[in-house]
């Protein structure tokens, strides 16, 4: 994630209003995920009824700096490589459920507690009345 990407109103050299349609849809879903909750890359693709985890991951890598990127995660709950400490700060601030790492775990970094943190795409969302898309929320 490039922190400077949102400073000038552009992302990856493009104005925000010039995002590819699929990227806009992924970012819209990301903004719906409530604080303290997460969706996997696959969950987002399923919710949209389009693409897959890799496509969602690509969108997040290119354009995710403008949204709460830390709320779209790997299915195993591992923190985003290269952004672990920034993400961990957000998770702690939002009280996202974590599983503390064992002493033998590399870097002693916790993982997300996916059973408790995973959002179903419906209950308690950022805009509970928003009911478009497809997949997991229907």
Explain what this protein looks like in three dimensions.
By secondary structure, the protein is an alpha+beta fold. The protein has helices at residues 21-32, 41-48, 53-63, 84-94, 114-117; strands spanning 10-11, 14-15, 39-40, 72-73, 98-99, 111-112. Residues 1-15 and 127-138 have low confidence and may be disordered. It contains five helices and six strands. Helix 1 packs across helix 2, helix 1 (21-32) crosses helix 3 and helix 2 (41-48) packs across helix 3. It has a two-stranded antiparallel ribbon. Strand 1 and strand 2 form a beta hairpin.
Task: Using the alpha-carbon principal axes, give the shape.
Answer: globular
Order of helices and strands: EEHEHHEHEEH
Secondary-structure-based class equals: alpha+beta
Question: Uncertain regions: pLDDT < 50 for 5+ in a row?
Answer: 1-15, 127-138
Q: What's the end-to-end separation, in Å? A: 31 Å
Query: Beta fraction of the residues?
Result: 5-15%
Number of strands: 6
Helix amount: 25-40%
The largest pleated sheet is described as: 2 strands, antiparallel
Order of strands across the biggest sheet? Answer: 1-2
Number of helices: 5
Gyration radius over CA: 15 Å
What's the pLDDT, averaged over the residues? Answer: 82
């Amino acid at each position: 994630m490039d922190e400077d990407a949102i400073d000038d109103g552009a992302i990856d050299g493009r104005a925000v209003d010039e995002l590819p349609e699929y990227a806009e849809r992924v970012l819209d879903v990301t903004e719906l995920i409530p604080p303290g909750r997460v969706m996997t890359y696959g969950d987002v693709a399923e919710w949209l009824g389009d693409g897959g985890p890799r496509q969602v991951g690509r969108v997040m890598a290119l354009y995710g700096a403008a949204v709460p990127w830390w709320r779209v995660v790997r299915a195993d709950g591992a923190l985003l490589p290269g952004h672990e400490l920034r993400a961990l700060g957000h998770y702690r601030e939002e009280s996202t459920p974590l599983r503390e790492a064992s002493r033998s775990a590399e870097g002693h970094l916790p993982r997300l507690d996916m059973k408790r943190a995973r959002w179903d795409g419906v209950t308690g969302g950022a805009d509970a009345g928003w009911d478009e898309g497809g997949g997991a929320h229907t």
